[in-house]
Specification:
Helix content: 40-55%
Largest sheet: 4 strands, antiparallel
Distance between the termini: 49 Å
Number of strands: 11
Structural class: alpha+beta
Strand order of the largest sheet: 2-3-4-9
Oligomer: single chain
Number of domains: 2
Radius of gyration: 22 Å
Number of helices: 8
Length: 279
């Protein structure tokens, strides 16, 4: 249990530091922006409906996750409210498994699945062995819990003072032009009039179209608040469910209805052999 406690505590603090020291994590438009990541997760996650609802509050979600990881890690290492910290780690790991690594096959290659079981086992051990006590918080307990909050805030602040990697970049600037093309779908399987959702090189959700004139694609990340747009086959438009933005994919993804005035970003696609690829 001590080995498990040390491993989980250090890992969660490192996870918080990794986000805090990333210049792009809270920068809208960056390839590592939390909203960009959530948009990609929503495509294949069984809780995609919930992730889509969080997209309009991406920055706040990112701050909450970062501070929570610092807090859980510190509480675990310092033995402050360890049972609640273990439960928080379990819930967070389960959420990450259902969102970011749900599609990893076979399932045991997804580290979030292993962390979910580790935290659950740790929580059950602590819950089963704890002594009954009242729920009152004395002065010592208050200061111990406050210290965890202070560590979380300090860790986030230090991460911003000592960033790692290059400054935040937009997806177009962050993708190496020399990257090999990636396969999207078999050419023969996408008929004229069909659409296909996929994850672009930048890690963002995208939509592929095929018409008599050829193939083209756009980012599915709404230019308003970063929610994921969906193609409406009845109206032939791309629509954002968060705030009602509508884009015309057959006219350069220009805005039909606000609140944004920026069209969706274009993604370069082509037909290579028997495949439609992102070039």
């Amino acid at each position: 249990m001590r080995v498990m406690r040390l491993w989980l505590g250090v890992t969660w603090i490192y996870a918080g530091w990794h986000k805090a020291s990333d210049p792009g994590f809270l920068t809208s438009g960056s390839t590592t922006f939390i909203g960009t990541q959530l948009s990609a997760f929503a495509l294949n996650s069984p809780i995609g409906f919930a992730i889509n609802k969080m997209l309009e509050h991406s920055t706040q979600i990112g701050i909450f996750v970062m501070l929570t990881e610092f807090a859980i890690g510190a509480a675990t290492l310092l033995w402050i409210a360890p049972t609640w910290a273990a439960f928080g780690g379990f819930v967070m790991s389960l959420g990450l498994w259902l969102s970011s690594t749900w599609q990893v096959q076979p399932y045991f290659l997804a580290s979030d699945s292993a962390y979910t079981i580790l935290w659950l086992s740790y929580f059950l051990f602590l819950y089963g062995s704890r002594r009954k006590s009242n729920v009152s918080v004395d002065r010592r307990s208050f200061f111990r819990i406050s210290s965890v909050a202070a560590i979380a805030v300090a860790g986030a602040g230090l991460g911003k003072l000592f960033p790692t990697g290059a400054p935040a970049t937009t997806p177009s600037a962050g993708v190496d032009a020399q990257l090999k093309s990636i396969k999207i779908v078999k050419d023969a399987s996408l008929k004229v009039g069909d659409t296909k959702t996929f994850v672009s090189k930048a890690g963002t959700p995208a939509v592929l179209f095929r018409t008599k004139a050829g193939v083209f694609a756009y980012s599915a990340v709404c230019t308003h608040e970063g929610c994921t747009v969906q193609f409406n086959s009845a109206s032939k438009n791309l629509q954002c469910a968060c705030h009602g933005a509508v884009f015309d994919p057959f006219d350069g993804a220009k805005v039909v209805t606000g609140p944004t005035n920026q069209p969706l970003a274009k993604i370069k696609v082509a037909i290579e052999g028997s495949w439609i690829v992102e070039a």
